[in-house]
Amino acid sequence: xxxxxxxxxxxxxxxxxxxxxxxxxxxxxxxxxxxxxxxxxxxxxxxxxxxxxxxxxxxxxxxxxxxxxxxxxxxxxxxxxxxxxxxxxxxxxxxxxxxxxxxxxxxxxxxxxxxxxxxxxxxxxxxxxxxxxxxxxxxxxxxxxxxxxxxxxxxxxxxxxxxxxxxxxxxxxxxxxxxxxxxxxxxxxxxxxxxxxxxxxxxxxxxxxxxxxxxxxxxxxxxxxxxxxxxxxxxxxxxxxxxxxxxxxxxxxxxxxxxxxxxxxxxxxxxxxxxxxxxxxxxxxxxxxxxxxxxxxxxxxxxxxxxxxxxxxxxxxxxxxxxxxxx
Amino acid sequence: xxxxxxxxxxxxxxxxxxxxxxxxxxxxxxxxxxxxxxxxxxxxxxxxxxxxxxxxxxxxxxxxxxxxxxxxxxxxxxxxxxxxxxxxxxxxxxxxxxxxxxxxxxxxxxxxxxxxxxxxxxxxxxxxxxxxxxxxxxxxxxxxxxxxxxxxxxxxxxxxxxxxxxxxxxxxxxxxxxxxxxxxxxxxxxxxxxxxxxxxxxxxxxxxxxxxxxxxxxxxxxxxxxxxxxxxxxxxxxxxxxxxxxxxxxxxxxxxxxxxxxxxxxxxxxxxxxxxxxxxxxxxxxxxxxxxxxxxxxxxxxxxxxxxxxxxxxxxxxxxxxxxxxxxxxxxxxxxxxxxxxxxxxxxxxxxxxxxxxxxxxxxxxxxxxxxxxxxxxxxxxxxxxxxxxxxxxxxxxxxxxxxxxxxxxxxxxxxxxxxxxxxxxxxxxxxxxxxxxxxxxxxxxxxxxxxxxxxxxxxxxxxxxxxxxxxxxxxxxxxxxxxxxxxxxxxxxxxxxxxxxxxxxxxxxxxxxxxxxxxxxxxxxxxxxxxxxxxxxxxxxxxxxxxxxxxxxxxxxxxxxxxxxxxxxxxxxxxxxxxxxxxxxxxxxxxxxxxxxxxxxxxxxxxxxxxxxxxxxxxxxxxxxxxxxxxxxxxxxxxxxxxxxxxxxxxxxxxxxxxxxxxxxxxxxxxxxxxxxxxxxxxxxxxxxxxxxxxxxxxxxxxxxxxxxxxxxxxxxxxxxxxxxxxxxxxxxxxxxxxxxxxxxxxxxxxxxxxxxxxxxxxxxxxxxxxxxxxxxxxxxxxxxxxxxxxxxxxxxxxxxxxxxxxxxxxxxxxxxxxxxxxxxxxxxxxxxxxxxxxxxxxxxxxxxxxxxxxxxxxxxxxxxxxxx
Lengths: 327, 870
Fold this sequence. Notes:
The complex is a heterodimer.
Chain A: H1 26-47, E1 51-55, E2 58-66, E3 76-84, E4 88-93, H2 94-109, H3 117-121, E5 136-141, E6 146-151, E7 160-164, E8 171-179, E9 182-191, E10 194-201, E11 219-225, E12 230-239, E13 244-247, H4 260-275, H5 300-310
Antiparallel strand pairs in A: 1-13, 2-3, 2-12, 3-4, 4-5, 5-6, 6-7, 8-9, 9-10, 10-11, 11-12
Chain B: H1 2-15, E1 19-26, E2 37-42, E3 48-53, E4 59-64, E5 70-76, E6 83-88, E7 98-99, E8 117-120, E9 123-127, H2 128-131, H3 139-143, E10 149-151, E11 157-159, E12 162-163, E13 167-169, H4 180-185, E14 191-197, E15 216-221, E16 227-237, E17 240-250, E18 254-263, H5 278-284, H6 307-310, E19 312-326, E20 329-354, E21 357-383, E22 388-408, E23 411-434, E24 437-457, E25 472-494, E26 497-515, H7 521-526, E27 529-548, E28 551-568, E29 573-592, E30 595-607, E31 614-621, E32 624-628, E33 634-648, E34 653-674, E35 680-705, E36 710-727, E37 730-750, E38 753-768, E39 772-789, E40 792-803, E41 810-820, E42 825-832, E43 839-846, E44 849-856, E45 861-869
Parallel strand pairs in B: 1-7, 13-15, 32-35, 34-36
Antiparallel strand pairs in B: 1-4, 2-3, 2-5, 5-6, 8-9, 9-14, 10-11, 11-12, 14-15, 16-17, 16-45, 17-18, 18-19, 19-20, 20-21, 20-44, 21-22, 22-23, 23-24, 24-25, 25-26, 26-27, 27-28, 28-29, 29-30, 30-33, 31-32, 33-34, 34-35, 35-36, 36-37, 37-38, 38-39, 39-40, 40-41, 41-42, 42-45, 43-44
């Protein structure tokens, strides 16, 4: 467990943290994870530079249906927000978005330095549930067509990388159909080992779409791979001008972001640890060599849950991998 | 050198087929617009040829690969008006610039239509809003329309022809098999979706171990719905009233459903109370005993009309049900009670089949049937992944009285009968896991007591007890029944096979006594019964269940030792059965390209029991007497069935078909003798090789077209029954054939106006005695028009009825008007039978008689009802 003295440059936060870094009791174990997350945001938001990218204009909601496990046709659902304006966009896991909004509210409310972290966490506004899986954010810049992928549980496994969606070679077909009131046209491309099909609508002239995809002369309304392992569908699209777009990648400079291959190896290691029975949710990026405790609940369901949440388990439409072929 | 250059130029000229359009996009201020989308379309077909996105300088570059004369170029950008130009490609190299004007038009919102049916694993999710229509009140009104789901008249729900084994609301089973009380009263606007759980195993512990083929339904309520239900109050002419309150509460820990009603308007609130507890049958293989009354008359029902159209009654009923979490499980209390009085006036012509002739007797009947009923059930259930325990205690009391007056052959015959039914029982189920095996124990004990009494004065039977000096006859019977059952299932799973071995012990004790008091000693023996019946049946059923990918196979070979004995104390006779019986049950299903095929074979061996056996004559009605002086006799039954089911969820299409064939072999036969007074005397006799055949083919088709908001349904049934019966000492083979089919369509004509129509035909061929053939058919054409606008809702329902034995076809019309004050309050005016048809002629027949009855319908009535939602 961390002690106050071991946390780097923690002068901005109150010192009462000492209280729980002694013998952690069961209740405190529960809060510790939330605490680490909270601290993570708190520390690095005050130290990294948050580059503001202007207020949003529109917000779309995407539903992602995917099958992460081999020989298992169970489909998992995940929702994301695509928030954009003329120049930038952010594709964020919905649960993470709501969680970080609450954290921001709490932090701005309790910015007095003498406030204890414990009381902040215990305040009446309970934080909403963390994302169960797919906890990442992608920010895109329209002028350069550069997309930055950031994994939000960086304290478990730091993984950031860039991809330029302008390099995607789309092949526009003559098929068109009406999806939810918008006239859409079909386009296909090859992405790593996947063959993708996307329906985009010129009626929304934004060269963007779900995940790392964009570059078509219209918003991508639905995207899937030909084997239906990943399906993205636009379910809502409304005007939204109150959200401030931020660039989160620069925050993580202090954590030495990994290149995709490094990130993949790290994931592989985490999965092996999990299957061997170690509780990877207690992993700490600041102390990578620390020995992990054994898993309390080694049931199939729990292992699957942890895999989805912490090891980026095939839930990514990863250019470098494809289900059944990576690990 | 020059040749090489020429070659290069030559090659180069071939490449330059690629034409390009370049330019810049600027706003009204002359500033470049970044990220605008520029698309070039082919002029004739309007297909996309090329696209480009403007860069930081507003610059775009379209390259067109196919040779074109001119193309249409559209430029779009958020916050600006669309700009379009037709560009001639011959002007090569010239820059085309666009200047966009701002627009404050907001992009339209996505019209996401929630899919009416979605599938996740073994669960189908039906979105209620997609299927609900104006005028639907309870969730059962919407369920009927959902493809694959059917509700019969008693409210029993089935999916693809299989009845459901559980009805949950928010995951909890409050009502047990009386779920129709909830489905008929839960307002549809409180429900978000209906889940069909295919192959549902209600015991969580046995979820992947014991595979079920039965479906279940779970009602998912809308967010925030906890208190729901309605209260209704109404009155009308002639002298009708209606009052009903159905408050319901559903939350995480408690659920309660209450219905109180009182009415004489024809609306039937009682069908749910008499439903068979199918759930117990599926779990236990046993059903709670139902009354098997021997004496008296029961109301005649119509096959052509709904009960609400002919039932003359006064009914008060109440049902209170409460579920609460208790410790780790749930405690449930269900209390039902009703007081029902029915009036029936009939006028009939009965043609009895006497040897070589028919005897016609005219008969008038005026009856009042009064039923008082109370049932209480207390259940505790703990259903978790590690443990299962359930105990259910119940007691039932039924008091049924009949008061009739018959007028036959110029004689007035008053008759009264009084029947009571008392029943108390307890069921216990426990599942434990030891190592890799599961043990499921079921214990059931029940006691029933049924005293009956019949009294009548006069009539053709009055001289039957030869020295009867009185003018009235009094018949009494008394039945006692004690049933007990203990069973253990040992469930072991190995790879894809489940071995479920059931060991059970059944002990049954019955007693039947009957007397005809006030008769002489000699006659008394003829009319007296004092019988004891006992059966002790140990049974072993080692069953195998195999499930792999698309194949499911199960075989249950039931081997039992039947030790039965019947003792007749009056005649000092004994009948015993000591035999080993083998009754296999098999089932196979295979999923072939999305079509689910299934088939099965069962063999059953039944033995006659009390009250099917009695040596003394029992007079059951003023013109009916029965005697079944037989030893314990056997019935063997072979049953084959096969079917298929296909559902195309994307199209909301559901098709299923089924064929069944039953072969019965009895060593007994029913014999009827009719005398010149029209008295039917029924006897059961021994008979060798009495075979009966029953066949039925059934098909059903349901299609919900979301785009047109139309429902198309069709179903048909063809069946044939053959059996041997003795009539007036002549053995006959009676054949009944029937064909029924129905198509219905439901579609919107205009906004707020929907039309639904159905055509229903039933054709029946009956051959009695080889030379007595009666064929009849019935056609009903229904047309309903529904108009809704804002708060008004008008329904106009027409039924055109044609029946072979009806003199004239006629039209039956209902009309209703509803005005909604707000979401929860409405007033409705209902007119029933507006053309005031007083009666109709119904023909029924059986082995020994053909009967034409003039059946009274409820006269024209108008009622106004106010409804408040909770």
